[in-house]
Each structure stands twice: as C-alpha cells, then as structure tokens.
Design goal:
Layout (H helix, E strand, L loop, with lengths): L6 E6 L5 H10 L3 E6 L12 E6 L26 E4 L1 H10 L2 E3 L5 E9 L13 E8 L2 E4 L5 E6 L2 E8 L4 E4 L11 H12 L8 H16 L4 E4 L4 H14 L3 E7 L7 H8 L4 E6 L1 H8 L5 H22 L5 E3 L4 H7 L25 E3 L7 H10 L4 H4 L19 H20 L8 E15 L2 E14 L7 E2 L1
Parallel strand pairs: 1-2, 1-3, 3-4, 4-11, 12-13, 12-15, 13-14, 15-16
Antiparallel strand pairs: 5-8, 6-7, 6-9, 9-10, 10-11, 17-18, 18-19
Helix pairs in contact: 4-5, 4-10, 5-10, 7-8
C-alpha cells in the first residue's frame, strides 16, 4: 500500500454518507480514500496510513446477508479506528458485545449527552449537543474493554471507546451538518487520535501532479476534449502547466451549447493548441425526430465520439487521451464490489469504445468537485470559469422536451441566457448550484404589451447543492 500523503482509509459498507465523510476529512487538510468493505487488508502497512474509518450502511450485522469483511483490518497495529453507525455495530459484533435489532428506525435529529468529558473524541464539544441519527439496530451492550462515552434519549450507548486499542464507535453521523459539532469530532479523531499533521492541500497537489505528469508523459502528446466546463478546463490548465504545447485541445461545437460558449472558450484558451470543430449540422441531423431523453444522450454521445476521434486522428502521433473524471464519477459508476449501489453510468467512466487507440490519463480522478474549483483558482483560471454552474454533457438537448431542431435550440439558448443574466444581476450566481431554462413542447396564451399572444413556454429551474451529491430547490 503505497501512499504519498498521510492517509485515512474509509471502508465503505454502503452508506449514503460515505462520500461526505471523505469530503469532511479533506476539508480538514487530511487526505483520505474510500475503499470497498470487501477489500482484503494489506499485508504491507505504509507509515502514511494514519487511521481507519468503518462507514455506516443499510445492512444488519445480524443477518447472513451482511457484507463480508476481512477482520485482519482490525489486526493492523497502532492504527486508530472510528466506527460510524454500522461501523460501530460491527466493532461490537466482532468484539463480543451485543447488537440488538431495532423495532423502529431512528432517523432524524437527537440530543447527545456526553458522559465522559475526558474522552479525546469529544474534546471541546459541549456536554449536550445536537446530532443526526439514522439507524435501525443499536448497541445493547459494549464489548469487553469498551466504555460508554455518550447517550441519547433513544440510544443508551450512542458512543463508546476502547482507549487501549484507540477505537471509538458512534451511532450517529458526524459528517452531516445536522450534527453541529461533527467537524470538531472528526478533527479530534484526525489530529488528537491519529496524530495527523494535515499535509493535504491543493497547492501541494499542483506541484505533485505537475511532476508526476511530466515523468509519466515525457515527450508524448496528449489530446483533450475541452468543453469549457469546470472539469475539462482545469484538466487543460493542469496539463498545459505540466507539458505546454504537447497538449492538443479539441472543442466540439455541437449546436447545443450555451450562448457565446464557443467564442468564450476560444478566447480564454487562445494560448493553448486548440482546434474548434463546427459540428452543429451533424449533431442536429442525428437528433432529427428523436424525442426520448435517453436516446438523445446516446445519439449525442456516439456522435461526439466519432467527431472527436476523427479530429484526434488528424493530429497524428498522439498517445494519450485526457479526461476530467472526478472521484464521485468513479464511486458512482463502480459499486466497489460491495453493498454500495451503482447510481448511474458516467460518460467519463467506462464510456469509451474498445477500439479507441489512446492510453487514458485522468489527473483529477481523486478529487471532489469543490477541490477541483480550488485547483482551478490555483492554476490561474478565470473566476467565472472555475465557478460556473454545471452544464450537462448533452447540452440543451436534455433541456428541450420533445423534438430538437435549430430554431428550438436558438430559442432556448436566448431564454437560458436571460435566466443566467438575471441570476448574475441579482448576485445569486455563486449561491445557486444550477439555474436554467427548460423549453416545453407546448404553447399557451399570454400577454405581451397590451395584446394577447400564443407563444412557447419555458420552465425556470433552480437547485441548491454543495457538491452535486444531494440537492434541494432554491
């Protein structure tokens, strides 16, 4: 197990919050990775491995269907362990304690009463503090060597500790914002129990990645599909910093872009080797008569691959294909062979044809979206590029209900630009995750000036999110 930074490993038992745990830890300046709970324990332990977290999960440790787990993880010497929810119950079950089946699922806010004020995990945490519960089973009796640290009205052992083994189990979720002191608790685990120094930052990531890219790529040329979105723009900036004109960028204008996108990208990346391809007619011809949203995606994806492949082949001797794959893309597209559900397939993960004659390089593969934005700022990208709202790969096609043609694309492009201009003018663009217009396949009666009119209808949609993992309406 070769690790570059001090690392916390999270074993994923299928919790919906596992990615949130990882993000919270990285926010504290400590690198972490998510591994399937089914992974075998390593035979060689790196000195950089500082701690282990056992995540929550939807299963019961009392069922035969419970995820398999290599108990050798618990035999690693001198590694503090934090068990969260299911992780706490697993420590109990394997340690000889008693896990009781829950008659009712406890889900929602609760008040935590800390029983041991000297517990390192609860250092600088008030003796009574709000937490978030989400569990069915609970710990009825702690294993030998463990003492109760906290309780709630619905959970007599809400936290326990084995100080000799440096293990803490908690029934609640410190990673969600509803647990008010959750970040303080995680900080205590990282810096007090695991003795981390906090050596993870985007500044160090840039220096390390530039050196790694230069070493790996040598004098090879790399091709990148530059869409103008955050991910591909940051990949372009990082690769350009590392290898300069060895990077070849291809921007495909599919006729489904936001207003002014083509000119904006061409201007901002004018110092790069950039090929702009006008493929509007080809894409719109392929979409003629297509109404089903998933079929639209497939037509656009297949057409893009063909166009990109043709342009890349014209460049000559190019060995590498760069992609803006992020850590959530990888996690969502791969079930980790464990209990986590595959949420959806991503165009960046496993979406390339088998005969594509390039080796793949994904320099952002271990980063979350907010980390990518920070990286983009560090690389000198314009603020509006780094913090632009997400835009779907299929573009306006999935925001046009029904048939797609040039006139409907132009209409929605203008409407969407008005929505964006108003959101920017109101000073809300950075506060909203995504705000846009959708063109409906209907017309309705309205009033323009003093006259009745019969015109097209747009829906305005706006949602809030921090990282695209969960969202709520604005």
């Amino acid at each position: 197990m070769e690790l570059q930074h001090e690392t916390i490993l999270i074993l994923d038992f299928g919790s919906q919050y596992t990615q949130l745990i990882a993000r919270r830890i990285r926010e504290l300046g400590v690198y972490c990775e998510i591994r399937p709970c089914t992974d075998p324990a390593p035979t060689h332990i790196s000195s950089k491995l500082k701690g282990l977290i056992l995540s929550g999960g939807p299963d019961s440790v009392l069922e035969d269907s419970a995820p398999t787990f290599d108990e050798n993880w618990l035999a690693i010497p001198d590694i503090p362990i934090l068990g969260i929810c299911y992780g706490m119950q697993l420590l109990t079950h394997l340690g000889g304690g008693e896990v009781a089946r829950g008659t009712n699922r406890e889900y929602g806010p609760a008040d935590l009463e800390i029983l041991d004020g000297d517990a390192v995990f609860f250092k600088e945490v008030p003796s009574n503090t709000p937490i978030w519960m989400s569990h069915g089973d609970h710990v009825a009796s702690a294993p030998s060597g463990y003492t109760a640290l906290a309780r709630s009205s619905g959970c007599p052992i809400a936290a326990f500790e084995n100080r000799e083994l440096q293990r803490v189990g908690i029934q609640f979720h410190p990673e969600v914002t509803h647990t008010r002191e959750g970040q303080q608790m995680l900080s205590n685990f990282l810096f007090q129990m695991c003795q981390c120094s906090g050596d993870w930052s985007m500044g160090s990531f840039i220096d390390e990645q530039v050196a790694l890219l230069q070493q790996k790529l040598g004098n090879d040329r790399v091709v990148l599909g530059l869409s103008g979105g955050v991910d591909s723009s940051v990949v372009a900036a990082l690769l350009h910093k590392a290898i300069g004109d060895q990077l070849e960028c291809i921007f495909v204008d599919n006729g489904l872009l936001r207003k002014g996108e083509r000119d904006s990208v061409a201007a901002e990346f004018s110092e790069y080797r950039l090929t702009v391809v006008d493929a509007e007619t080809r894409f719109l011809d392929g979409l003629e008569g297509v109404v089903d949203p998933e079929k639209k995606r497939k037509v656009i994806g297949e057409t893009f691959i063909r166009v990109f492949e043709e342009e890349a082949n014209r460049l000559g001797d190019v060995r590498w294909l760069a992609q803006g794959t992020l850590y959530p893309d990888v996690i969502e597209s791969v079930s980790f062979k464990g209990p986590s559900a595959t949420i959806k397939s991503h165009h960046n993960v496993g979406g390339l044809p088998e005969h594509f004659d390039f080796e793949l390089i994904e320099p952002l593969r271990e980063l979350f979206k907010d980390e990518v934005r920070t990286l983009g700022t560090g690389l000198g990208l314009a603020d509006h590029r780094v913090h632009r709202q997400p835009f779907p790969g299929p573009g306006l096609a999935v925001r046009i209900l029904g048939e797609i043609n040039k006139s409907r694309c132009d209409l929605l492009r203008e409407a969407d630009a008005i929505v964006t201009d108003e959101i920017v003018s109101a000073g809300l663009y950075r506060d909203i995750w995504q705000s846009f217009a959708v063109l409906l396949p209907v017309q309705t009666v309205g009033v323009m000036g003093d006259e009745r009119t019969y015109e097209n209808v747009c829906v305005v949609r706006a949602v809030n999110s921090r990282d695209g993992m969960t969202a709520d309406w604005v």
